[in-house]
Structures are given as structure tokens and as C-alpha cells.
């Protein structure tokens, strides 16, 4: 059995009075994508910075491809790539010169740096823009160049800290394609993201962090199936939202969400509560609620995140994904 590409045990890190990491535990198999999710301030970026040797932990242990991030930091650095949410490229240089510079900093030599730059520019479709100054690049192109620069040394493990934040959908898809290609080649990727659909699309395993601790982990499907059924009722009359919410709350448990704009009530049932569509329709009819549409479906990763952390991200809503409405059972009246 192969050793984990990333292994974290009881990791602690404090900044002043803020406990950023509080006993973090993590294990990432080689050649996989691990999505690290959590509310703002949960400790995701701190964890990545410690693993990338950019910050020292207060206590605990972390290993990357078998090397301790504190005692063997140089060995770790020679085997990892890192790209953050802000492109760390020189705007006064061309794309090609940026890659040459990174190669020389990693002691590839002039010829080796040039060869590696050409390989990456061709492979990831930046060859045509290679001789333009980076300041003329779009945001998506800069982020792509930054990601490519992290690949100059052919890393065994790539750390991506919110790499697509603020990008348009096409640029995000470009980054996703690069990540998939790297994993196909055997690279291990640890990804923090504020886009839940990104984790759903890319991650083999998802680790949910809150207050510096892991509160849940599993495949995206396992996390989604760990909570109940998603219920959504759309009404003809917004004046009946409160009555509909009472019915949904009684069946699902917990507090439903009301949306005046869409005239809808939605909730995810508590684990173990089974809701049947005919039962929901009968209860709404009995309460005198005129439902325009009633739907039951599998919860999304966003629903799972909300159930696990009690908070939604402040990020832009996730893009529509093919499985967003998969296995949904509906009645339209």
C-alpha cells in the first residue's frame, strides 16, 4: 500500500488570539484531488501554507511525499507546486520570460529552463501569447500562467488555494481541464475552493474544515447522501409561504428557507426522515396551500455544506452542473 502524498496529524497553528488550526487531521492518497472546504476563516489557507512550508505549525506533524514540512522543508519544496488566488507573476515580463525565470530559480539551467517553458506553453495553450507582456493578459490568462509556473519542476503534489476565484466560467473550465490532466499524469492535488461545484466536479474526496478542525470527509456523493432529502415547494400565492413552511418543517424537521422572489420554500430533511412526494402533496392540500410545483431530490454539495457547518459561503453561487437536478421527483400543478 502506497504512503499518503499528504499526511497531517494533530496540526495546530495560532495567530495572536485566533486559533487557525486546532488539531487538523488529513490524509491524501497519491494521484487524487482532495477538496478542502470550509467557511471563511475555517483554516483552509493556513493549512495549505503550512503544507507548502510557507508557515510553521505550532505543534503537530505534517508530511508531504514522506518529508516533514518543518525538518525537511527543502525536500518538500523541491517536490511541490503552489498557486494561490492571486497570480504571482511578473507583469513587466513576457509569459515566456516568467517561466524562464522560475526555471532558473529552480536551478534548471538556461537550456533546461527554456525547454521546460516551451513544453508548458505548448501543452497548456499559451504559446501564442508567450511573447506578450503579462500586464496585457486577461485575468484568466494570468491565473493560467501562474498555475503553469507551479508546474515547472514537475511537482509530485500541487497545492491550489482558491485558484479560480473571480474568474469567468470559461477561464474556470480552462483551469479545471489543467487540473484533470495533471491528475491523469499522477499528480496529487490539494485544492481549497469557495465554489462548491468546483469541488463536486474535481475532487475525489472532500474534507470539510470548521474552526481549524475536520468536521466531515468523504467523496462528494457520500457527503451529499449523509444528509436527508431536498424539498422545494413553489407557490402561486406568496401569501401562503408561512403556511407552506409549517408543512415542510413538520415533514423535514428544522427550519425551511423562504424565498419571496421565487415564492418558494426549501429544506433538507433531517437524516433518517423519509419524505414521499404523495405525502407532501397531501399535507399541502390539507393545509389549504396551493402549490405550483413540488419537488423532492438529492441534496447538493451546497446543502451538505450548510448542514455540516450551519453557514453558507459568501461566494458567488455555484454554476449549474449536470447532476444538480439528477433524480429529482416533481409535481407541477
From TrEMBL:
One of its GO terms (molecular function) is ABC-type xenobiotic transporter activity. It is found in: Cell membrane. Residues 6-236 form the ABC transporter domain. Gene3D superfamilies: P-loop containing nucleotide triphosphate hydrolases. It is an enzyme of class 7 (translocase). Transmembrane segments: none annotated. It is a peripheral membrane protein. The keyword Cell membrane applies. Its main location: membrane. GO terms for cellular component: plasma membrane. InterPro entries: AAA+_ATPase, ABC_transporter-like_ATP-bd, ABC_transporter-like_CS, ABC_transporter_ATP-binding, DrrA, P-loop_NTPase. GO terms for biological process: daunorubicin transport; doxorubicin transport; response to antibiotic. Belongs to the ABC transporter superfamily. Drug exporter-1 (DrugE1) (TC 3.A.1.105) family. This is ABC-type xenobiotic transporter. It comes from Streptacidiphilus fuscans.
Amino acid at each position: 500500500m502506497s504512503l499518503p502524498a499528504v499526511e497531517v496529524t494533530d496540526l495546530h497553528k495560532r495567530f495572536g488570539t485566533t486559533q487557525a488550526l486546532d488539531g487538523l487531521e488529513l490524509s491524501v492518497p497519491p494521484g487524487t484531488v482532495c477538496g478542502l472546504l470550509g467557511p471563511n476563516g475555517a483554516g483552509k489557507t493556513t493549512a495549505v501554507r503550512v503544507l507548502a512550508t510557507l508557515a510553521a505549525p505550532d505543534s503537530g506533524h505534517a508530511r508531504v511525499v514522506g518529508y516533514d514540512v518543518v525538518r525537511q522543508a527543502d525536500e518538500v519544496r523541491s517536490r511541490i507546486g503552489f498557486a494561490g488566488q492571486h497570480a504571482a507573476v511578473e507583469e513587466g515580463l513576457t509569459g515566456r520570460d516568467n517561466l524562464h525565470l522560475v526555471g532558473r530559480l529552480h536551478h534548471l539551467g538556461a537550456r533546461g529552463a527554456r525547454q521546460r517553458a516551451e513544453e508548458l506553453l505548448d501543452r497548456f495553450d499559451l504559446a501564442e501569447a508567450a511573447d506578450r507582456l503579462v500586464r496585457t493578459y486577461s485575468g484568466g490568462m494570468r491565473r493560467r500562467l501562474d498555475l503553469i509556473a507551479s508546474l515547472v519542476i514537475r511537482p509530485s503534489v500541487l497545492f491550489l488555494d482558491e485558484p479560480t476565484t473571480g474568474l469567468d466560467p470559461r477561464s474556470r473550465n480552462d483551469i479545471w481541464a489543467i487540473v484533470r490532466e495533471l491528475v491523469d499524469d499522477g499528480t496529487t492535488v490539494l485544492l481549497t475552493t469557495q465554489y462548491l461545484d468546483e469541488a463536486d466536479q474535481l475532487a475525489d474526496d472532500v474534507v470539510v474544515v470548521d474552526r481549524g478542525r475536520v468536521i466531515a470527509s468523504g467523496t462528494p456523493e457520500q457527503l451529499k447522501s449523509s444528509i436527508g432529502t431536498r424539498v422545494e415547494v413553489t407557490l402561486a400565492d406568496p401569501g401562503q409561504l408561512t403556511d407552506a413552511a409549517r408543512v415542510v418543517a413538520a415533514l423535514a424537521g428544522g427550519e425551511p428557507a423562504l424565498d419571496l422572489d421565487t415564492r418558494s420554500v426549501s429544506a433538507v430533511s433531517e437524516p433518517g426522515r423519509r419524505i414521499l412526494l404523495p405525502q407532501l402533496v397531501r399535507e399541502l392540500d390539507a393545509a389549504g396551500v396551493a402549490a405550483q410545483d413540488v419537488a423532492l431530490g438529492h441534496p447538493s454539495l451546497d446543502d451538505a455544506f450548510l448542514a455540516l457547518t450551519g453557514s453558507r459561503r459568501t461566494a458567488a453561487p455555484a454554476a449549474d452542473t449536470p447532476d444538480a437536478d439528477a433524480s429529482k421527483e416533481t409535481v407541477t400543478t
